[in-house]
Amino acid sequence: MRLHFGAGLLLVAALLWLGLRLFERTMVFVPSRTLWAHPGTVGLRYEALSLKAADGAVLRAWWLSGPSPEAPVMLCLHGNGGNLSDRTDKMRIFHDAGAAQLWLDWRGYGESGGSPDEPGLYRDALAAWAWLNAVKLVPAARLVLYGESLGGGPAIDLATRVPAAGLIVDSAFTSVPDMARVILPWFPTRLVHTRFDNLSRLPRVTIPTLFLHSPEDDIVPYEMARRNYAASGAVRKSLVDLKGSHNEGFLDAGPAYGQAIRDFLASLPKAPK
Q1: Predicted confidence band at 14 (pLDDT cuts at 50, 70, 90)?
Q2: Domains, the chain
Q3: Quick one: 126 exposed, middle or buried, by C-beta within 10 A (0-12, 13-18, 19+)?
Q4: Can you spell out the DSSP letters for 181-214?
Q5: Overall pTM > 0.85
Q6: Is the dihedral of CA 202, 215, 101, 142 positive or negative?
Q7: How many helical (H) and strand (E) elements, i.e. helices and strands, does the chain have?
Q8: I need a labelling partner for 106 at 20 to 30 A (CA). Which of 7, 31, 74, 239 fits?
């Protein structure tokens, strides 16, 4: 009888643990498989790519040439919701700011294979960088890493691993456990498995860094942007305030968003020809 009771408790504990992991994953990653737009929708020419991560996951990416052969190249890592097709307005803004762009869809998002988790997203970001390095031969002096919201985690991590000219952190949090305390204060944050601990990595980022965040952000508190900014090890860094909500702040800010991107790109040293 005791054996049956003990086995029952183990089963309940296992189910609770699996339930917590599933709940956590559905809160952190909110992918959509439906592509409803593409860069051509906003008048941009592009090339659809298939990249492969180190563990074999096949990833969809879009390459958008810049306005000139010497244009800076932005490696763009999007947030936790939707897919590439939800970012075409930003593609237009970044093009107008003078950048070439590689946009990556995370594993489990859009047409990318697999399912998302934190280690997988780090591998995905590295695969995108490897393609730019090996196929496009993009020198570090022209490479700018861009991370939006959740994508700020892999972008910041990548900035500690590969050479680049600059980093743009757009509306990112300090860490997933910190976000859990804000959104779900009743959730046992010590059990949170996914970390994306940007705050602890930023002191190791020394390249020029632009932080973008709205004081009115309705999801990621502005205070997290201030803490990330303070923690950054970059000798040259700035925090530009947007307007409006978390998802629409780049639009609500009007021309100021694109101008901040343009000014940051223009401030980076020119790559030798």
Answers
A1: very low
A2: 32-267 (3.40.50.1820)
A3: middle
A4: HHH-TTS-GGG------HHHHGGG--S-EEEEE-
A5: yes
A6: negative
A7: 9, 10
A8: 239
